[in-house]
User: Fold these one by one.
Assistant:
Number 1:
Amino acid sequence: MKLELERIDLREIELPLKWPFETSFGRTTRRRIMIVRVFDKSGAYGYGECTAAEDPFYNHETIDTAWIIVTKYVAPILAAAHIERADQVNDALARIRGNRMAKGGVEAAIWDLEARLAEKPLWQHIGGSQEEIACGVSIGLQQDIEALLEKVAREIEAGYQRIKIKIKPCQDVALVEAVRSKFPDILLTVDANSAYSLADIGLLKQLDQYNLMMIEQPLAPGDLVDHAKLQRELNTPLCLDESILTVADARKADELGSCRIINVKLGRVGGHGEAKLIQEFCADRATPVWCGGMLESGVGRAHNIAMSTLEGFTLPGDVSASARYWEEDIIEPPVTVSSLGTITAPAGLGIGYEVNERRVEALTVRREEINII
Ligand code: OSB
Ligand code: MG
């Protein structure tokens, strides 16, 4: 069945987080989220979420830059490309350099649309095979170590299979020491969000004694060479997040030895097409990948679940229950996690969750309709 794209309905919704989320680059208390709905001429539609944040601190994009890219470039380029299948979108949008979160929100919506037209769950439509996915949590920087230990205890109790804690200079070894001594056997990782440089190699080496599953993105996004130098000095595997935007980046990181694990974020890599290429490449190289998170609403979370069912996703991801983020999600039912720390891929068509359109309408602070002509 050929797609005939007609229009994009862009919305910005505001959604307060239940608890602030703090990383080495800043603190988020409420999300401004771009929800993308792409219609085709038959009236069918698909949903996507742009994972750009409010500020350009994780990467260069923001919801505001993404809004411009989608309205001014993505829509007309899709029109000119006469897209007939979702797997053509990634290549068609390659002319737009960077801005992968902007492109990825639309690309994901078109995959959902195509899955619904094919009357299939999205996860099957993109080629996923793991009906159950393994879940971990990402715990932000806390006020003090007691608060951190309490959070870790709560998430372990809930069943999550892997705990990741955020670190930054002066809040690193002591946090890991405290968590590891209280929880000697858990799968534990740390994420620095690029807060260190090679000058910190002595400090980063101290982390080797805590049996961490990985150290995520210690150095700057462009520092593949420095990550390789660091990896040679460490026993703990490095995992790259911010550094990996494309399958070409994954290949370079692999050739250089910059990491041993890759975090794939659907938005950061520009959508399901590129995510699939990265996990295929990594599966060939026996490099484990897992699904990262960007504090998504239910729409982005549902796409993350679908992506996580691809065969290369072998480690627990940062895909966790809606209730960890929101009083009330914008999808029904909300995403829940079993006591074994798993999510079952939904059986419904497309993303497999109903979008609560009344709630989306009530949360909308900006809206724009763009024709794909
Ligand atoms: O580095 O993985 C990250 C959130 C915002 C920006 C970057 C990151 C994160 C997270 C949260 O770690 C993951 C989640 O729970 O969605
Ligand atoms: Mg990260």
Number 2:
Amino acid sequence: MLPESLLVRLRDARHVCVLTGAGVSAESGVPTFRDAQQGLWAQYDPMELATPEAFQRDPELVWRWYRWRRELVSRAEPNAGHRALAELQDLVPRLTLVTQNVDGLHQRAGSQDVIEFHGNLFSNHCFARCNDDHPVDRDDAKVPVCPDCGASVRPGVVWFGEGIPEEALNASFAAAADCDVFLSVGTSSIVYPAAGLGTIAYESGAMTIEVNPNPTEQSGTFTSTLRGNAAVILPKLIELLAH
Ligand code: BV8
């Protein structure tokens, strides 16, 4: 059951900030980042592939992995958890949705102004960053070549060791510091700086809630935790909030 104190705080909130991770897309059939990879990719550790060094070492391998993920995500549908967060934006005066996910499922569920903290699977850009926009529909089987400078084209995601896009970083930190309620949904709270947002919110006086079927490294730092799946807990939260 959901704590009455959370419903009271949500009803009175002027600004709610939500951080989502791969667990929100789990019920859409998209493996979480630390789930065992499927098929051919079971032999690879995502941490080893999601780096600029991996792309420089073997661009075709990394490009194929992202192409496989794009195809998998294209076949997936947003789930009740994504849809509940899209409804939440109409139930509170201000909602900031920050996602670590690169699958675009929040936007397909109807969420507006999603902050994509780690970029998006369906955008590509020149590896030499000669000009940051390339046709989104470049999904060739082989690594495309930048038409302007001849360097490789790479997926438009933030790899380990790369900085978060400045606008996304600043907007997310500001929202965490300003919100009255912070929901951390479906993330293991391992990857920084995203994993630091909950603490910023808590130290700024917000009520912070972790929604996750499993405990995480940061469970003890939240005001409270709701143990369960996002696609179950979030719709229940919306139902109670809307009535
Ligand atoms: C950076 C895009 C500096 C690619 C990803 C301290 C400060 C700053 C950096 C660091 C730091 N300490 C360490 C670092 C380095 C590193 C880092 O955090 N490493 C970790 C491993 C310790 N951070 C970085 O490199 C970041 N860059 O800070 O660089 C810098 C600054 C300026 C200039 C240059 C450099 C960049 C990190 C971004 C990496 N890119 N993704 C891609 O997707 O291929 S991160 C990747 O992990 C995904 O985006 C994923 O979202 C993210 C986090 O994982 P989760 O989403 O939490 O997923 P996970 O599988 O772990 O957990 C799923 C959870 O869901 C579980 O808890 C499970 O229980 C739960 N769950 C399951 N089912 C459900 C559910 N929950 C609800 N409902 C369900 N049904």
